[in-house]
Structure formats: structure tokens, C-alpha cells
Amino acid sequence: MATERTYIMVKPDGVERKLVGDIIGRFEKRGYKLVAMKFMQPDAALLEQHYADLKGKPFFPGLVSFMASGPVVAMCWEGKDVIKQGRIMLGETNPLSSAPGTIRGDYCIDIGRNIVHGSDSLDSAQKEIALWFKDTELVSWGPTENKWIYE
Q: pTM of the entire structure?
């Protein structure tokens, strides 16, 4: 389990439902470090790049339209095995298949409104972080006086 970074995004429905703080709190309580965060209104061009692997799917236009319908919270988190563990914390893409205790299992019931996105691999995490953040926006956690609990 290596220290790595992942991209997590609270979607417009999660922002509208005021779940941002709860989602951030879950990652913080787990022991992960917030490396970058921005509250923004993404445009269709950015979203089409982000979801490029889904471009041929029939739901693609609706997905881009929904994601552009309101603000999102884009975040980069760092820690041991954060990509895999972050996906477990989020729950299944279909919230009805998500276990209670996961973010989607606790907060949503519709696959089209599943409140949060998380990178599914190291490759996608690196691409998504680079797409949503400039290198200068990413904080590097150096040595501090207070050791982190998981270091």
C-alpha cells in the first residue's frame, strides 16, 4: 500500500444537498490529507474531457448536461492506498447496490444522481488530477512538527 493521490469530486446534486462537509469529513476522519480543493462551475468542454471514456455511451450527453448544471467541489486527496480505499468509501456506482456506511449507500438512491465521483485507478487519478488542477495548486505535505497518525 503506497502513498498515492486520488481525485474526488462532489457532483452538483451533492453540492445542492449540502453534503460537501460530510464527504470531506469522512476522508479526513479516515486519515487522508487534502492536497487541493476548488469550488467551481465546470463547462461542457472540461466535462467532455473528464468523461471522454464514456463518449460513445447513450447517456453521455445527459451526464455532461447534468454535471454542468451546477457547481462541483473538485478535490485531490493523498494517503496510503487512497484510490482503492476512496472507492470503497464512496460505494458502488449504483447507490442501490451500495452498502450502508458508504457515502452513496447513506446519501443517495439513484445512479444518475450518485453525488460523488472518485478515480478508479492510478492512471485515471493522475489524468483527472492533472485535468482539474495545475501543479501549483497541489500542496506538498512536507515534514511537520506533528507526525501524522499513519506515517
A: 0.91
